[in-house]
Amino acid sequence: PEWPGFRGPTRDGIIRGMQIETDWKDKPPAELWRIPVGPGCSSFSVSGDFIFTQEQRGEDEAIACYTLNTGELVWLHTYPARFWDSHAGAGPRSTPAIHGHYVCTLGATGVLKMLDARDGTVLWTHDLVSETGNEHSGWGCPSSPVIQDSLVIVAAIGQLVAFDLITGEARWKGPDGGDSYSSPQLITIDGIPQVLLMSAVGLISVSPADGKQLWKYSWPGESRIVQPAITADGDLIVCSSDGMAIRRVGIRQDNGSWSFEEKWTTAQMKPNFNDFAVHKGHAYGFNGNMLVCIDLETGERDWRGSRYGGQVMVFADQDLLLVLSEKGEVALVEANHDKFREVASMDAIEGKTWNHPAIAGDILLVRNTQEMAAFRLPRSGS
To answer: CB 150: neighbour CB atoms within 10 A?
Structure first.
């Protein structure tokens, strides 16, 4: 799939193999379609000419498939469930995961479903809250599933669980890390594949084969939201429980024993719910609603830019940031640690926008709790 799930192919907000035109005055993005959408914080997954998202429709949660190029509804699966909180409103919080003709979703009340992506037929269902006994503390179940080979891996609040992709049979349960709103992150450290989850205890790593804990890095606090990121040399950038600081942690193993080195902690980036992206030795993300650049060697801030809020992605081959602001504006910013420079912007959608954007080829997908839209980005040199 072009965009198999939450934050892209490797869940890091990095777009590879694509360069776009940055002169949007002469070559602006072309709007393909714009349609209403039900409430929810879900983003998109994309496979071929089909996109998948989750939304609230009255008293039902809905899993919807639309066409990429026209926005036409292909199929809709609904089931009785409704979650609401005063912070984000009603609707599902997570993003579907796509693998072949399978699409997996987690609803805000903990209903995990596997559907046939071609027609929306339900293949299997689990209720994670009743099956694990893990209850959320007020923000629902926002974990986005990830599919690894024959496994579906998802966080039941602060506990990783895995199911067989085809049969839905439970395969393993990881240790319970307490409250968490993070999603599983597949990563390889020192040549060892592992699944990471930020939770109340800090950061837990388990083996994707059997769910056994490989290591635990303790940074206790309340529930965590933001995904961990890996540096070019294998260190991790993790966020504090209240989103008021980030930390670089070196993680190494020697004969099966894991060790940790805290290299720096800074409050100059505070990604409370906004995921950040790592690119060429720097992290780009938010301090509150202000875009900032952090030097990963020192933890010092190189610059701070405009007040966007929202989410950020990186066109890696072009040293370019794409920001979707919480007001629905799309901006292009140089991924340059020397200075902040916005090179283009446009108003994309209206209303409070917290949902992550998605990219499929040269098509940008954006949505919030009211509407969603698709834009064809001008390719560089076209």
So the answer is: 13
Nearest partner of 6 among 140, 184, 207, 239, judged by Cα: 184
For 228-288, give the DSSP string: PEE-TTS-EEEE-TTSS-EEEEEEEEETTEEEEEEEEEESS-B-SS---EEETTEEEEEET
100 burial (CB, 10 Å; 0-12 / 13-18 / 19+) is exposed
pLDDT value of position 224 = 82
pLDDT tens digit sequence for 270-282: 998 889 999 999 9
Which phi and psi (to 5°) does residue 76 adopt? -140, 130
Q: What is the pLDDT of residues 96-141, one digit of tens each?
A: 999 999 999 999 999 999 999 999 999 999 999 999 988 876 788 9
pTM of the model: 0.96
pLDDT of residue 382: 64
Burial of residue 156 (CB within 10 Å: 0-12, 13-18, 19+) is buried
- 90 contacts 56 by C-beta, under 8 angstroms: yes
Write 117-125 long-range contacts (CB < 8 A, 24+).
Answer: 117/47, 117/50, 117/52, 117/65, 119/75, 120/63, 120/65, 120/75, 120/76, 120/77, 122/77, 123/166, 123/168, 124/163, 124/167, 124/168, 125/168
Q: Is the pLDDT of residue 242 over 90?
A: no
Dihedral in degrees, nearest 10, Cα atoms 23, 26, 29, 33: 170
Order of strands, sheet of 111-116, starting from the edge strand that comes earlier in the sequence: 97-99, 102-106, 111-116, 122-127
Alpha-carbon torsion 181, 234, 12, 99, what sign?
negative
Q: Cα(371)–Cα(153) distance, rounded to whole angstroms? A: 29
